[in-house]
DNA sequence: AACATTTGACCCCC
DNA sequence: GGGGGTCAAATGTT
């Protein structure tokens, strides 16, 4: 029991190994490509799609691993409760939007009937020295000055809260001025299907039989995901905003989305755009100590 | 016109 | 009663 790898750990190891192998394949392709002379058309038509597919698989491994981390209360205790696509889709029917009276809080009938999230445990938390895209489309629904904070806290919900009942929310709190430090706290899990780029959602190939937890967009449409510094916009053309009092500075980000871009997404985008932008700073950290399992305990 | 953000007010829980 | 989270009308942007 003690030194025996838990199921969760094993699953993560498998994912990482898978990712490593796929990355090796990708490397071989790239090396081979550089050592041979192909026409541009050949490269475009054969190598790139394959390379892209491999890169996606690498990303998928990373995302699965991270999600495994996110969905286990304690990685070491062997409790494995992955949130599969089927699992989440089964709760799509306004799962967390209905209060005890059965009133969907997203409806107009639910005026002033609110359920606070503040007593729910955060799903996970991330600190970063900058505000970045995390691949999801968020909509800001409020901001507030809190007692123990020097800066405004911004509240975001998934843009598909009402059309798909996605319960995911996040709070962005600037915690430090110099150097700038932001804490993004995520609540709930996405059960929406189109928050990420629709093209590759829930790709079935996945090189594995296992449940696909999350599929990251690796095909950012240029018109939607433009490079801006080291970040991307995941929302409609929005003004580069400045959060009043909170981060009116360096974050040239759409206000709805100055969220945190997971490293793997950023890496891949750098790859895709063949533009080596600056990587996230080393001050970025993910805190998994606040992971509370996979339950959609939003309204519970 | 459609959609996103801002912001004051409301409401729940501690 | 106060703090925090959310709503929704007003406003801004494209």
TrEMBL record:
SUPFAM superfamilies: WRKY DNA-binding domain (SSF118290). The keyword Transcription applies. Keywords: DNA-binding, Nucleus, Transcription, Transcription regulation. Pfam families: WRKY. PANTHER family: WRKY TRANSCRIPTION FACTOR 21-RELATED (PTHR31282). This is WRKY transcription factor 22. The keyword Transcription regulation applies. GO terms for cellular component: nucleus. GO terms for molecular function: DNA-binding transcription factor activity; sequence-specific DNA binding. It is found in: Nucleus. Residues 127-195 form the WRKY domain. Gene3D superfamilies: WRKY domain. It comes from the Eukaryota.
């Amino acid at each position: 029991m003690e030194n025996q790898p838990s199921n969760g750990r094993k699953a993560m190891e498998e994912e990482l190994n898978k990712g490593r192998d796929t990355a090796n394949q990708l490397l071989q392709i790239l090396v081979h490509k550089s050592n041979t002379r192909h026409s541009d058309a050949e490269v475009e038509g054969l190598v790139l799609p394959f390379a892209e597919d491999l890169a996606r698989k690498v990303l998928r491994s990373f995302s699965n691993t991270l999600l495994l981390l996110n969905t286990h209360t304690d990685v070491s205790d062997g409790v494995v409760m992955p949130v599969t696509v089927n699992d989440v889709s089964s709760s799509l029917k306004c799962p967390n939007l209905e209060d005890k009276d059965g009133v969907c809080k997203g409806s107009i009938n639910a005026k002033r009937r609110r359920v606070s999230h503040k007593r729910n445990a955060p799903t996970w938390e991330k600190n970063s020295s900058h505000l970045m895209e995390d691949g999801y489309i968020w909509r800001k629904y409020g901001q507030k000055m809190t007692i123990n904070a020097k800066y405004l806290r911004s509240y975001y919900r998934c843009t598909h809260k009402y059309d798909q009942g996605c319960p995911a929310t996040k709070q962005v709190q600037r915690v430090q001025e110099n150097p700038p430090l932001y804490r993004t706290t995520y609540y709930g899990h996405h059960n929406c299907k189109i928050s990420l780029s629709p093209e590759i959602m829930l790709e079935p190939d996945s090189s594995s039989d296992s449940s696909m937890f999350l599929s990251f967009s690796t095909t950012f449409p240029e018109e939607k995901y433009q490079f801006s510094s080291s970040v991307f916009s995941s929302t409609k053309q929005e003004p580069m905003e400045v959060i009043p009092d909170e981060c009116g500075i360096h974050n040239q980000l759409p206000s709805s989305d100055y969220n945190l871009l997971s490293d793997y997404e950023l890496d891949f985008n750098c790859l895709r755009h063949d533009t080596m932008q600056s990587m996230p700073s080393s001050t970025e950290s993910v805190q998994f100590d606040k992971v509370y399992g996979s339950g959609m305990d939003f309204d519970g």
